[in-house]
Amino acid sequence: MSHGGDLESYKNCYDGELVDYSSNINPLGMPKGLEEVIVDGVKKLEVYPDIRYRNLRNYAGKYLKCKEDNTVLGNGAVELIDNFIFLAKRILICIPSFSEYEERALIHNKEVVSISYKEDFTIDIQALASTVQEGDMLILGNPNNPTGIRIGEDELISIYNIVKKNNGFLLLDEAFFEFCPRDYDSIELFRKTDYINLGIIRAATKFFALPGIRLGYGCTYNKVAKMIGENQLPWNINALAEVAGSYIFNQREYIEESKVYIEKERNYLLSELSTVSFIRPYFTNANYILIKLLNTDEKCVFNFFLHRGIIIRKCSSFKGLNKGFIRIAIKNRKNNNKLIETFKELDRLKVR
Amino acid sequence: MSHGGDLESYKNCYDGELVDYSSNINPLGMPKGLEEVIVDGVKKLEVYPDIRYRNLRNYAGKYLKCKEDNTVLGNGAVELIDNFIFLAKRILICIPSFSEYEERALIHNKEVVSISYKEDFTIDIQALASTVQEGDMLILGNPNNPTGIRIGEDELISIYNIVKKNNGFLLLDEAFFEFCPRDYDSIELFRKTDYINLGIIRAATKFFALPGIRLGYGCTYNKVAKMIGENQLPWNINALAEVAGSYIFNQREYIEESKVYIEKERNYLLSELSTVSFIRPYFTNANYILIKLLNTDEKCVFNFFLHRGIIIRKCSSFKGLNKGFIRIAIKNRKNNNKLIETFKELDRLKVR
Fold it and tell me: To bridge B92 with a disulfide, which of B45, B138, B308, B334 should be the other Cys (CB 3.0-4.6 Å)?
C-alpha cells in the first residue's frame, strides 16, 4: 500500500461501513451547494472543456491571490508534481515524504537525492545546503506528509535563498496548506519574487474534500507556468472539475469553518491521544497526525483497527520510516471519538 | 487553432448559439439515463477513485471483448497516446493526422519520422515498408483524423506484419472506430496475437459524446498494459468517469442506434455535398468529412460559416494539408440541413 484511501482492497474485511482514517480529507465534506452546481453542469460533459481553461485559471488566480499567468492547473496535485519534475535536472527530496516525488522522478529518468529529516522531522538545513547543486529541484511538503510539520516562515525564506543561490528550483507541495493556522501564506510571502525559482502546488483534493474530481492548482514563475501548460495533455482537467472551480474558491464561509473545525479537532485528538501509553503522536499543523508506536508495529495496530471498521495508514511504505509508525486523519468528532476509544481499548489490552 | 471544439474563442463573434461542426461528437448526445447515474454518483467525488480502477477495467474489458489484463485506461484517449509514445524509441506517423502524435512525441524527446498518405489519403505501404526500422512505433488513425478513412482489414494485417517483422509497435488510434460500419473489429481481428506489438485506443469522448468526462480505454499486450499502468499518475481518471464507465458500455441500444444514425446522416451529407460545386468531399467511414476547397480557402469559408453561427474546422494546422481543406462533423438532420444550406448559399455567391 503506497497510498491511503484504498478502501476497495479492504471492503470484504469488515461487516459494515469502513471509516477511512488513511486518507486525509476535510471531514466537513464538499462545500454546501456544490452538489447542485455539479448536477447543473452535467450537460457540460457533452462539450470539451475550454482547452485553455481561461475561467478556471481566473478563479484560481483570484483565490490564490496571484496573477493569472502565474497559475498552473492540473489533473490533481499529482499531475502538477509530475509537470514540475519533468522540467528538472536532478531532484532533491527529504524523507519521509509523499512517495510520488521519487516515483515520478524515476519515471522521468531523473537522478534523485534523498536527505533525511532530523529526528524531530524538521529540515536539516545544513545537510540541505551542503547537498544542493547547481540547478537542483528541491521538493518539500509544506506541511509535509506524513509528518504534518509546516516549514516556519523564516526557515522557508532561508531554504528558498539556498536553492536560488544555486540556480535551483524550490517546489512546495502544499496540498494540505489550507488546513494550517494562518501564520503566513507562502504565496503572499514570495509575491515580490514573482515566484522565480519557485513553484507552489495546492489542490481541491484534501481541503475541499474532492479527491474524486481531480483538480490541482498552484502558482509559479510565469515562464515556468507557460512551459508546464505547453507540456500538459490537452483537456487534462475534466469539465466538472472546471465547473467545481467556478464555485469552491468563493466559499469563504466554508473555508473559514473548515480551518476552525480542523484546529479544534486537531487539538482534541492530540490531547486525547497523549494519554495513550503505547503511542507518541507528533505535533502537527495539518489534518493528520503521525504516530510513533512504542511497543507494537503497524500491522498489529492496522488489523486491530480494521476489525473495528477503521482503516489507518501504515507508514513503512514511506522511505525513512519503519513499521513503528502509523498516520491517522483528523475527522469529525463522532469518528474521532471512535478512533480514540479504539486506541484506548488497544492500550488496555497491551497493558494487561 | 490546433484542435477543434474551441467554442470559447468564438463566442463573441456571433449573436446566438454557435453550432460546433469543428468537433466530432455523437449527435445523439450522451446515452439516455447517464445523467441520472452521474447525478447519483456526485457524492463519490468525496472519496478517491479506486487507485487500480478494478471495476472500470472489468467493464471496459467486457465491452472491448478483451481480457482485463490487456486493457488500458486513460484520462481521455490522448493520455493513452502519450503513455504509449513514452515507451517508444522512434515514432512513425502518417500525415495528415491528429497533431498530438507528433506533439507528444516531441515533448518526450522522441525522434519523429513522417510519411505522407497517398493523394487519396490511403496508406503508402511501400513507403512505409522502406521507412520502418527496428523497434519503431507506427501510429495510425483508424479511421484517420481528419481524412475519415479506415484501414481495410487485409491492409491492416499487412501493416501489422511489416511492423512486427521489425520488432516494432503498431499503435492504432481508434477514437472514431465505433462510428464505422461493422465490417471488422480490430480487437477481434488481432485477438490471436495477444496484442503483442500492438496497441488499440478508443474513448468515451466521441462515440459516447463525453468529451468533458475524460475517459479513454484500449487494449494491448498484457506486459505493455502493465508498464503503462505503472507509469501513469495515480488517480488519473476522475470518479465520475469511473461511474460513467459502469453504465455506458452496457447501452447496447444506444450503441446500435448511434451507428445507424451516423451511417444515415453520413450518406445524406455526402450525397447533398456532392452537389456543391466549390468543394470536393472525401469518402469517409467516420462521423466527419474532409472537404477539399476547389477555388477558395479555409479562412473565407470559416468566416462565412461563423457569421451564420456554424464553426467548421480549418485544416491547415494539420501537417500535410494546406488552406485548401476543411473538416466538418456529422450532426443531427436539422443542423446538417443548416450546414448544407450554408454551403449552397456560399456556392451561389461564388458562382455569381
Answer: B138
Size of interface A-B (CB pairs under 8 A): 146
* pLDDT band per the 50, 70, 90 thresholds, residue B74: very high
* Cβ of residue A102 closer than 8 Å to a chain B Cβ: no
Please name the residue of chain A whose CA is at the shortest distance from the CA of residue B234.
A78
User: Which residues does residue B139 pair with via DSSP β-bridges, in sequence order?
Assistant: B93, B171
Q: Answer whether B39 sits within 8 Å of A42, measured CB to CB.
A: yes
Distance of CA B279 to the CA centre of its chain: 24
- Nearest Cβ partner for A39 among B42, B214, B236: B42
| pLDDT tens string A240-269 | 999 999 999 999 999 999 999 999 999 999
Tell which residue, A184, A60, A66, A84, has the closest CA to residue A138.
A84
Give the three cell numbers for residue B86. 513514452
Does B110 contact chain A (CB < 8 Å)?
no
Cβ distance of A51 and B6 shorter than 8 Å: yes
Q: Please report the pLDDT score of residue A5 as a whole number.
A: 72
Note the residue count of chain B: 352
Strand A19-20 relative to strand A310-311: parallel, antiparallel, unpaired?
parallel
Q: Give the global pTM.
A: 0.95
Cα first-last separation, chain B: 31
Interface contact A234-B3, CB threshold 8 A: yes
Q: Using the beta-carbon criterion (under 8 Å), do A44 and B100 form an inter-chain contact?
A: no
pLDDT in tens, B27-49: 999 999 999 999 999 999 999 99
Q: Which amino acid is at A352?
A: R
Alpha carbons B171 and B176: distance in angstroms, whole number: 14
Enclosing H/E stretch for A252? helix A252-273
Provide the ipTM: 0.94
